[in-house]
Design goal:
Aminoglycoside 3'-phosphotransferase, Chain: A, domain 2; 2 domains; 345 residues; two-stranded antiparallel ribbon; six-stranded antiparallel beta sheet; single chain; 10 strands; disordered N terminus; alpha+beta; Phosphorylase Kinase, domain 1; globular
């Protein structure tokens, strides 16, 4: 999920972890052959993320709060990533601890640890996006979906997206904002099949669920998908709608005077050219994409209210939350449905 979590500021090496992090960062570091002072904090939200080097190679360590993911769920993420690496899909590969395990547990705190190769490249701002870049992006998402359609987990399974959507916590907002909750529930009721494991009539499977530009590293002519923390079982339409949602907003901010409709056309034309070269368009047509876009707005408002704005007082996030909240209540389309139907049927 983005808009709210992009731009975490790097901290100094060896800095104390956030309140969600482990009390003994040294124990976590030792499991990967380094000291706590060798870890550079990159940011924190659901997990604390650190950069480090091992065997001369750059690595990323995620320290995951026990309330966020179980070891079994992290293992399921790792298993899919390992299968994707074997299939030649460009993802950030998991790396084992010094004990040879891909998933570690700190018994004193319950924190789950997982490390990855640090993929080369950086996030590309919307002002630099070319047709070639958008086509590569679409092809990468298509390869993820094509792989998932035949993938059988060798161990634990990820959960349906419905089980870890912030929209499930709407009752916590009822007293403060009944108007938003009423409008949000209408969206959720209609969009429920998108988050179901079997798709409830839509084609569904294991999906990344959050391949926006912040989870896409660009290096020369290559793109790499990172941060599979949100992966789970849901509709392929939801998976396609997520990069569209954020990209339209980014393009509108990056290019003065561009409309949401024009931004969607600018993104989808090359993106879907790449996507459909390796995977079929998801079922459900433009209506399913429209519902997914509306659902993401609901989720962002809930996440901002229940998590981000509880952690820090940020006027920019407050204004973003109000703007998104008003869009949900008014029922305005994120992207005109006629535009979505032109691309998705």
């Amino acid at each position: 999920m983005t808009d709210a979590n992009q731009g975490a500021s790097p901290a100094k090496a060896g800095e104390a972890p956030s309140p969600s992090g482990p009390a003994d960062l040294a124990a976590a570091a030792r499991l990967y052959g380094v000291a706590a002072a060798d870890l550079q904090a990159l940011g924190a939200f659901e997990s604390d993320v650190y950069a480090f080097a091992a065997d001369g190679a750059p690595r990323i360590l995620k320290v995951i709060a026990p309330t966020h993911r179980t070891p079994e769920l992290v293992q399921a993420e790792v298993d899919w990533l390992l299968a994707l690496v074997e299939a030649g899909v460009s993802v950030s590969a998991p790396v084992p601890s010094v004990e040879g395990r891909y998933v570690e547990l700190l018994p004193d705190t319950g924190h789950v640890l997982v490390a990855f190769e640090r993929a080369p490249g950086a996030v590309a701002p919307a002002s630099t996006w070319t047709d070639e870049h958008l086509e590569r992006w679409g092809r990468l998402l298509g390869r993820l979906q094509a792989h998932a359609r035949t993938y059988a987990p060798p161990g634990p399974r990820r959960r349906p997206l419905a089980e870890h959507s912030y929209s499930s916590r709407l009752p916590e907002l009822e007293a403060d904002d009944p108007g938003f909750v009423a409008a949000a529930r209408q969206v959720m009721d209609r969009a429920a099949p998108l988050l179901a494991e079997d798709g409830a009539g839509l084609d569904a499977g294991l999906i990344h669920a959050d391949l926006h530009s912040g989870n896409l590293l660009v290096h020369e002519d290559a793109v790499t998908a990172v941060d599979f923390d949100d992966c789970g079982y849901g509709s392929y339409a939801f998976d396609v709608a997520m990069p569209l949602y954020y990209s339209v907003r980014q393009l509108v901010r990056a290019h003065e005077g561009i409309t949401y409709e024009a931004a969607a056309e600018r993104f989808l034309t090359p993106f879907l050219r790449g996507f459909t070269s390796v995977a079929p368009l998801p079922s459900g047509g433009g209506e399913a994409i429209d519902l997914a876009l509306r659902l993401r707005q609901v989720e962002l408002v809930a996440a901002l209210r229940l998590k981000f704005l509880q952690a820090k007082d940020d006027p920019g996030l407050v204004q973003l939350m109000k703007d998104l909240r008003d869009r949900v209540v008014s029922g305005v389309e994120v992207v005109p449905l006629k535009t979505l139907k032109a691309f998705f049927g």
